[in-house]
Structure formats: C-alpha cells, structure tokens
C-alpha cells in the first residue's frame, strides 16, 4: 500500500489544529483530520526538531508577563492550600 503524501502546509495546519484543540488529544485530532495518530505525532516531533514550530519546554515562558502570571498562580495555589489546612485545623481544634 502506498503512503499518501501531504504537503508541508497541511502538516503545519494539522499541528496548529492539534495545538488549538489539545483537549481532544492526539488521537481525537488525528481522527478529525482523517490521518493516523502516528503521522500527526511524527510530524509534530519532526517540525519541533527543525524549529519550524515553536515548542516551549516546561518552565520556558514567551514573555516576562507570562512568567509573572505563572508565579502568581503558583503563589495563589499555595496560599489556598495553606488556608484549607488552617480551616481544617480550626475545625478539629474547635471541637
């Protein structure tokens, strides 16, 4: 069986579709596009390696504002966790 050839623009569009719809997952996006999950995964990996699509690793931010927002979100999450612990302690000690 001969593999179907896709042009570069289709591959870029497919990867963009995946990035815009990550909630569908790789398999869901591939099904919607009518391609195999392996093809989409291979294209994504290949285009990331060549630098044709932007791939930020964990902890890499595109701007200082995004970095500050992430820091504030972590701080808020930690504060909420501490508040929950204090509420539980008060309820236990208040008995």
Automatic annotation (TrEMBL):
Keywords: Coiled coil. SUPFAM superfamilies: Homeodomain-like (SSF46689). GO terms for molecular function: DNA binding; transposase activity. The keyword Coiled coil applies. GO terms for biological process: DNA transposition. It holds the Pfam family HTH_Tnp_1. It comes from the Bacteria. Residues 62-89 form a coiled coil. This is Transposase. It comes from Acidilutibacter cellobiosedens.
């Amino acid at each position: 069986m001969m593999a179907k050839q896709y042009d570069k623009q289709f591959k870029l569009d497919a990867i963009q579709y995946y990035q815009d719809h990550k909630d569908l997952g790789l398999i869901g996006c591939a099904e919607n596009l009518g391609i195999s999950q392996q093809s989409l995964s291979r294209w994504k990996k290949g285009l990331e390696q060549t630098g044709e699509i932007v791939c930020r690793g964990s902890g890499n931010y595109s701007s200082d504002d995004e970095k500050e927002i992430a820091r504030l979100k972590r701080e808020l999450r930690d504060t909420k966790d501490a508040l929950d612990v204090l509420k539980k302690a008060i309820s236990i000690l208040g008995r």
